[in-house]
C-alpha cells in the first residue's frame, strides 16, 4: 500500500527524497516495514501545502469539518484489528493496549472533536464616558476564537495513534491545517490515519504527513516560515530546543514534555488501591508514559508494607511477547532505550538505592525487554529520583508528615501529574491543591478526558484535552462596537 512507503503531501502520496529506513518490532527485532525518509525541502513543501489549504479550510462550516472527523473515526474503527496489529508491531504495546488505548482512543478523539462547540462569547456591555476617542457610548464586545493557521504536530513514540489524533482532531476542528511529523520509531500507523482522513474527505493539503529518522526532518517542521504553531509531545530537552526556534519566530506552542510523577501515600490509604495505581508504571507501555507515578512517597508507618506489596505485585506481571494474551509488560521501544533504563538502575545501585525487585534483564532470546524494577531506600538527591527514566522503574522515599510529603513531591523540575492516596478526603484535596503539578489524581490514576491536561515547570507549556484543546489550537480575537 502507498500509505506506508510514501509521504502524504498536498493530498498526494509522494516518493521520499531520502529513500526509506527500517521500522523495527521491539518484541522480535524484526523489520516491520520501510518508512519514508523526507528531506528538509519536502517538509517545507508539506508546510507550504498546508498554508495554501488554510484559507479554504478555515472558512469551511464547522459542521462540515465535524462530518469529516466523524467519518474518519468510523473508518479507523472499521479497520481496528489490522491497525492495532501494526501499532503493536511498531510500538511493542500489548494487543489489548494497541486495540483499546491506541487505535480505540484515537477513534474516540476524532469523535470527540466532531462535536461542534461555539467559538464566540458575548461580553458584558461597557459604558464609556466622552473622551478623546469619541462621545459617550455603550460598547458591546465579542470574544471570538480564530484558528492559528498551520500547525506542526510532532508526536511521541509511546502511542502512535492516540497522541497524533489528540493533536490532529482538535486542530482540524478549529479550522487549522496540519503537518504531522510522527516519531521515527513508529510512523507507519500515522500514515494509516492519514489514509482514513483522505477517505473521509479531508481536502488536499489540510493534512500532511512527513516522516524521517534524521533530526533535520523534525527541525524543518519547526523552522518552516509557513508554520504558525508547534504542538510537541516528547522530552523536555527537545522541547527546549523547539521553544528556542519558536521564540525567534513568535510561533505559538503547545508542549507536553517529561514527567516524574509523585504518588503520595498516607498511612490511612487503601494500600491495595495505591499498589494497583502505582503498578501501572510497570505495566502500561512498559513504563514509557510521562504520567506514570514513578516517585512513590510513602508515610513511614506504612513504608515497609507498601514496598512489600509492590514487590509482590511485580511478581505477578508476565513479561514477554506482547501478542500473547497473558503478557502484561512488553518491550521498550529500542535497544538504546533498554540500555539507558538499565544504566539508570545500575546508577541507582551505585547511589545507594536498594533493588527490591527486578534490576536484571528478562531471560528472553530476543526483544528489547527490561525487568520491572523497584528501588527503595532512596533519597531526594539521587539522580534516579530526580530524572525521568521513562521505563518500568519505581523509586520509593519515606516521609513523616504532610508538610514533608508536599515538600518532597514539589522538589522536582517536573510537574505533570501527581497522585495522592488517603482515606481522609479533606486531607487528600488539601494536599492536591498544594502540589505544583498540572494534574492531581486523588485515590486514582484514572483520567477525566474533559479535564485540562498539561504540566507545570519543565513538564510543558499550555493545556489540551476536551474544550481546552480547542482553545490551545486557536487565537483569541476581540470585536468591539458601539451599542
Estimated share of beta-strand residues:
15-25%
| Total discrete domains | 2
Largest sheet: 7 strands, mixed
The overall pLDDT average reads: 96
Quaternary structure state of the chains depicted: single chain
Please give the radius of gyration in angstroms. 24 Å
Shape: globular
CATH architecture of the largest domain: 3-Layer(aba) Sandwich
User: What is the CATH homologous superfamily assignment of the largest domain?
Assistant: Aldehyde Dehydrogenase, Chain A, domain 1
Alpha-carbon distance between the two ends:
59 Å
Low-confidence stretches: none
Protein name: Aldehyde dehydrogenase
Domain Aldehyde dehydrogenase: 13-479
Organism: Streptomyces fructofermentans
Family: Belongs to the aldehyde dehydrogenase family.
Structure description:
With 483 residues, this protein is an alpha/beta fold. It has 15 helices and 22 strands. The protein has a 7-stranded mixed β-sheet, sandwiched between helices. It has a 6-stranded mixed β-sheet with strand order 9-8-7-10-11-21, with helices on both faces. The longest helix is centred in the first third of the chain and has 19 residues.
Break the fold down into its secondary structure elements and pairings.
Layout: E1 7-9, E2 12-14, E3 20-24, E4 31-36, H1 40-58, H2 62-78, H3 80-91, H4 95-112, E5 120-128, E6 137-147, E7 150-154, H5 162-173, E8 177-181, H6 188-200, E9 207-209, H7 215-223, E10 229-233, H8 236-249, E11 252-256, E12 262-265, H9 271-283, E13 295-299, H10 303-315, H11 335-351, E14 354-357, E15 373-376, H12 383-386, E16 393-399, H13 402-410, E17 414-415, E18 417-421, H14 425-434, E19 439-442, E20 456-457, E21 460-461, H15 467-472, E22 474-482
Parallel strand pairs: 7-8, 7-10, 8-9, 10-11, 12-13, 12-18, 13-16, 15-16, 18-19
Antiparallel strand pairs: 1-2, 3-4, 5-6, 6-22, 11-21, 14-15, 17-20
Helix pairs in contact: 1-7, 2-4, 2-6, 3-4, 4-5, 9-10
Amino acid at each position: 500500500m502507498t500509505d506506508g512507503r510514501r509521504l502524504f503531501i498536498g493530498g498526494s502520496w509522494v516518493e521520499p527524497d531520502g529513500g526509506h529506513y527500517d521500522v523495527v518490532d521491539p518484541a522480535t527485532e524484526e523489520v516491520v516495514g520501510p518508512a519514508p525518509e523526507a528531506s528538509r525541502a519536502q517538509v517545507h513543501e508539506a508546510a507550504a501545502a498546508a498554508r495554501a489549504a488554510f484559507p479554504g479550510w478555515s472558512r469551511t462550516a464547522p459542521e462540515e469539518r465535524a462530518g469529516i472527523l466523524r467519518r474518519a473515526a468510523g473508518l479507523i474503527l472499521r479497520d481496528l484489528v489490522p491497525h492495532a496489529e501494526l501499532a503493536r508491531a511498531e510500538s511493542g504495546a500489548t494487543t489489548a493496549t494497541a486495540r483499546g488505548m491506541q487505535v480505540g482512543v484515537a477513534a474516540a478523539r476524532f469523535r470527540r472533536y466532531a462535536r461542534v462547540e461555539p467559538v464566540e462569547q458575548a461580553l458584558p456591555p461597557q459604558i464609556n464616558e466622552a473622551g478623546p476617542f469619541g462621545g459617550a457610548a455603550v460598547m458591546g464586545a465579542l470574544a471570538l476564537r480564530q484558528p492559528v493557521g498551520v500547525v506542526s504536530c510532532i508526536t511521541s513514540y509511546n502511542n502512535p495513534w492516540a497522541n497524533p489524533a489528540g493533536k490532529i482532531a482538535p486542530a482540524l476542528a478549529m479550522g487549522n491545517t496540519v503537518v504531522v511529523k510522527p516519531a521515527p520509531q513508529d510512523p507507519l500507523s500515522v500514515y494509516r490515519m492519514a489514509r482514513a482522513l483522505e477517505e473521509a474527505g479531508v481536502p488536499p493539503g489540510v493534512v500532511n504527513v512527513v516522516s524521517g529518522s534524521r533530526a533535520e526532518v523534525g527541525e524543518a517542521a519547526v523552522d518552516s516560515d509557513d508554520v504558525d504553531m508547534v504542538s510537541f509531545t516528547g522530552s523536555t530537552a527537545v522541547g527546549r530546543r523547539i521553544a528556542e526556534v519558536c521564540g525567534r519566530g513568535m510561533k505559538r506552542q503547545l508542549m507536553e514534555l517529561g514527567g516524574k510523577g509523585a504518588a503520595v501515600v498516607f498511612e490511612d490509604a487503601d494500600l491495595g488501591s495505591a499498589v494497583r495505581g502505582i503498578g501501572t508504571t510497570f505495566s502500561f507501555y512498559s513504563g514509557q508514559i510521562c504520567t506514570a507515578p514513578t516517585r512513590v512517597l510513602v508515610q513511614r508507618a506504612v513504608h515497609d508494607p507498601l514496598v512489600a506489596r509492590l514487590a509482590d505485585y511485580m511478581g505477578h506481571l508476565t513479561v514477554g511477547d506482547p501478542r500473547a494474551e497473558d503478557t502484561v509488560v512488553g518491550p521498550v521501544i529500542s535497544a538504546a532505550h533498554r540500555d539507558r533504563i538499565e544504566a539508570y538502575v545500575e546508577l541507582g545501585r551505585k547511589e545507594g538505592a536498594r533493588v527490591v525487585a527486578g534490576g536484571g534483564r528478562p531471560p528472553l532470546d530476543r526483544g528489547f525487554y527490561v525487568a520491572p524494577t523497584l528501588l527503595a531506600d532512596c533519597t531526594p538527591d539521587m539522580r534516579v529520583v530526580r530524572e525521568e527514566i521513562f521505563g518500568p522503574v519505581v523509586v520509593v522515599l519515606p516521609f513523616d508528615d504532610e508538610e514533608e510529603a508536599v515538600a518532597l513531591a514539589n522538589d522536582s523540575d517536573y510537574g505533570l501529574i501527581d497522585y495522592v492516596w488517603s482515606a481522609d478526603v479533606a486531607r487528600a484535596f488539601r494536599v492536591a491543591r498544594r502540589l505544583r503539578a498540572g494534574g492531581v489524581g486523588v485515590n486514582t490514576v484514572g483520567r477525566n478526558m474533559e479535564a485540562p491536561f498539561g504540566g507545570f515547570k519543565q513538564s510543558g507549556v499550555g493545556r489540551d484535552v476536551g474544550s481546552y484543546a480547542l482553545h490551545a489550537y486557536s487565537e483569541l480575537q476581540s470585536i468591539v462596537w458601539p451599542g
